[in-house]
Amino acid sequence: MDLRIELDGRGDLAGQLYRQIVDLVTSGMLRSGEALPSSRELAAQLALSRNTVALAYERLVWEGFVKTRAGVGTFVSSLSVGQLQSSAVVPSNVGPRVRAVWNQIPDPPDLSAWTPRFDFRAGIPDTHSFPFASWRAAVSDQLRSTAVGTGAYGDPVGDPRLRVAVARHIVVSRSVRCGPEDVLITSGIQQAIDLICRVLLEPGDVVAVEDPGYGPPRMLFRSLGLSIVGVPVDDKGLVVDALPDNARLVYVTPAHQFPLGVPMSLPRRLALLEWAARTGAIIIEDDYDSEFRFGGRPLEPLQSLDRHGTVLYVGSFSKVMLPTIRLGFLIAPPALCRALRKAKWVADWHSVVPLQGALARFIEDGQLARHLRRMRRIYAERHHRLQTLLHGAFDRTLSLVPSLAGLHVSVVSPESSFDDVTMAIKAAALGVAVRPLSFHSVTLKPKAAGLVLGYGALPVDDIEEALALLDRCLPGSR
Questions:
Q1: CA–CA separation, 439 vs 447, rounded Å?
Q2: Counting beta carbons within 10 angstroms of the beta carbon of residue 420, is it exposed (0 to 12), middle (13 to 18) or buried (19 or more)?
Q3: N or C: which end of the chain has fewer CB within 10 A?
Q4: Is 328 left (phi over 0), alpha (psi -120 to 50) or beta?
Q5: Cβ atoms of 192 and 165 closer than 8 Å
């Protein structure tokens, strides 16, 4: 018989042939018991090698679409026809149903899809200054057979060397109180938060977040069926008096509030810890970029002030190294460590072992410390330049929020009607990438309006020209 098959002549021809024969069976063009051409005949018909056709036929037999009779031929299986043709007419309302929450969560952005001329996007470090040669050597060393060993699955809590190295690093650089036994290695901060929620929260529990605040954790909370309440932020950080007493968890960025950039004052930190101890809530302290501080005295983490085991401290190496490395850590009270280890195990067993080993060596050899010293100088220059220029920019329509740390600053409008989204769209047309402050609002009205200006990926010599272009995008400007 002459099968109606057309192959494009590229790629996996046996796979293409297999799929087209399955389509013929599904559509009813090949009926139960009908004979297929021999492999020799079909190979000649389609100008293929006989081996290619034989491979396609073997897969069809193995999966039950056809059966062979020795010395007779290959025939369509009656079972496969009945099953496939009945499934082809399934009603439209039957089948996998996506939970409604996933229609409410926006599609993830592809930050690599656009390379703007001037990049003010927050959270992107200076990749051009990264010591790739040293990192490549550390990674290569972990891919030797002696380092890989048996290749067996590792401990969910992480590589022992890396846990030691992380503990030493954050004790010195961030004044965190911990030992290696308190460190759990994660695939970034987002996974650390996910593990905490899996262990401690139930659907419907109330979670308090800063408003405005960092968006990805909110989307995670929503996906888990948690109830989110926005809590206002002022010049001293989170307004603790506005926290709802029924909140089971509060997520904060006290060292450098995202996106406003203000630090949480010591009285507010102590008040937050007292509130958590009184209500039985837990605090997630996200210390996402505190290594980069350009003035003032270092701030004491909530974790080091905590005496009741209410603070879970999360961090990553995305800002200090590269976002693509996807390694972070979670410091938890001893009472939670066993459950969190189980949660990590069922989530993904463990983070990538060779990268953990490479990072341990990178820290042990002093490469991370050297890189941080260099980047502090580079970012300090950009921070100073940007803040100096902002004092006279935007015709005073937008005011700078003072900040002494991190890789971004914010400018805010006193008018809630300020259209920061349109301003960002206009800027994009001029080759300037910038994030509207209103995108980070949660539940409070009116929304905060302004711009979040990251400088991690913006060379110091480009800042003045980039701000001049942004100035042209102010509402009412031409």
A1: 9
A2: buried
A3: C
A4: beta
A5: no
Beta-bridge mates of residue 184: 330
Which phi and psi (to 5°) does residue 464 adopt? -65, -45
pLDDT digits (tens, 9 = 90+) for 109-137: 887 778 899 999 998 999 999 999 999 99
Residue spans of the chain under pLDDT 50: none
Q: Tokens 């980039």 sit at which residue?
A: 466
Q: Is 376 helix (H, G, I), strand (E, B) or coil?
A: helix
Q: Which residues pair with 312 in a beta bridge?
A: 284
Cβ neighbours for 6, distance < 8 A, ≥ 6 positions apart = 20
Residues in CB range of 134: below 8 A, 6 or more apart: 362, 365, 367
Determine the Cα–Cα distance for residues 48 and 354; give it in Å rounded to an integer.
43
Tokens coding 447: 């929304």
Q: Structure pTM? A: 0.84
Rounded CA separation 23/13 (Å): 15
Structure tokens at 164: 């030691």
Burial classification of residue 369, based on how many CB atoms lie within 10 Å of its CB (0-12 exposed, 13-18 middle, 19 or more buried):
middle
pLDDT in tens, 151-199: 899 999 999 999 999 999 999 999 999 999 999 999 999 999 999 999 9
Owner of token pair 């980070």: 440
Which DSSP string corresponds to 164-210?
Answer: HHHHHHHHHHH-----GGGEEEESSHHHHHHHHHHHH--TT-EEEEE
